[in-house]
C-alpha cells in the first residue's frame, strides 16, 4: 500500500473550501449554554451541550453520505459494508444524543447548531455533486469525503473527552474516536493511501 503524507497544507485548503461556515462557529471553550435547564445534571457543562449540538448534524451528514453510497450501483463489498456500519453506528449514536438533548430540554442549543457546516462537514453544493456520481467515481469520492469528515471531527470529540462534564457523554466520545480512527484506516487501505478531498 502506498503511503502519502498526512493532511497538511492540502487539508487546510480543503477545510476552507468545504467547511462553509466554520469560521463563525465558536471554539468549544467559547460555546455557552443559552439557558441552563433544571433537567440538566449538575455535572453537565458547556462542552457537553456544544458537543451534542454539533455532533448530531455532523453524524446526520455522514448518514446521508452513506445512504447515497448504499443506494448506488457501487458493488465493492468492502466499501458497502463500511458505509453500512458507518450509517448504523452513527444513527444509533444520534438516537442516543437526541434522546439526551430532549431529556435535558436544550432545544434552543440544538437548533442553534443544526444549520452549521463545520468540523469536516461538506457544503450543500459539494454534497449535491457527490450524490450525482456513480460507479467508481462515487466509490472514490465517498472514501475521500468520509475520511475528511472523520478526521476533522476528531478534534472536537477529543475536546469532549478532555473537558466534558457528563461522564456517559465522555465515554461515548472516546468510543467515537476509537471507531472512527479504525474506519479511517480501512478507508486508507481501500483508497491505497490517505485520501485528500
Automatic annotation (TrEMBL):
Record-linked Gene3D superfamilies: 1.20.1260.10
Record-annotated DUF305 domain positions: 48-191
Statement: the UniProt record of this protein carries the keyword Signal: yes
InterPro entries (UniProt xref): DUF305_CopM-like (IPR005183), Ferritin-like (IPR012347)
Superkingdom field: Bacteria
Keywords: Signal
Range of residues in the leader sequence: 1-19
Any single Pfam family the record assigns to this protein: DUF305
Record-linked PANTHER family: SLL0788 PROTEIN
Protein name: Uncharacterized conserved protein, DUF305 family
Amino acid at each position: 500500500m502506498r503511503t502519502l503524507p498526512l493532511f497538511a497544507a492540502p487539508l487546510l485548503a480543503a477545510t476552507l473550501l468545504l467547511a462553509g461556515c466554520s469560521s463563525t462557529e465558536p471554539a468549544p471553550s467559547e460555546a455557552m449554554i443559552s439557558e441552563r435547564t433544571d433537567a440538566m445534571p449538575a455535572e453537565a457543562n458547556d462542552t457537553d451541550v456544544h458537543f451534542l449540538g454539533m455532533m448530531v448534524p455532523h453524524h446526520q451528514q455522514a448518514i446521508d453520505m452513506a445512504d447515497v453510497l448504499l443506494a448506488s450501483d457501487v458493488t465493492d463489498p468492502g466499501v458497502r459494508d463500511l458505509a453500512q456500519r458507518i450509517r448504523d453506528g452513527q444513527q444509533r449514536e444520534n438516537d442516543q444524543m437526541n434522546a439526551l438533548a430532549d431529556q435535558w430540554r436544550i432545544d434552543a442549543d440544538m437548533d442553534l447548531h443544526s444549520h452549521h457546516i463545520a468540523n469536516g462537514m461538506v457544503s450543500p453544493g459539494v454534497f449535491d455533486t457527490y450524490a450525482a456520481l456513480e460507479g467508481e467515481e462515487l466509490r472514490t469520492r465517498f472514501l475521500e469525503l468520509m475520511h475528511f469528515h472523520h478526521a476533522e471531527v476528531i478534534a472536537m470529540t477529543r475536546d469532549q473527552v478532555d473537558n466534558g462534564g457528563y461522564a456517559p457523554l465522555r465515554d461515548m466520545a472516546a468510543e467515537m474516536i476509537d471507531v472512527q480512527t479504525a474506519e479511517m484506516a480501512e478507508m486508507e487501505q481501500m483508497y491505497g493511501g490517505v485520501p485528500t478531498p
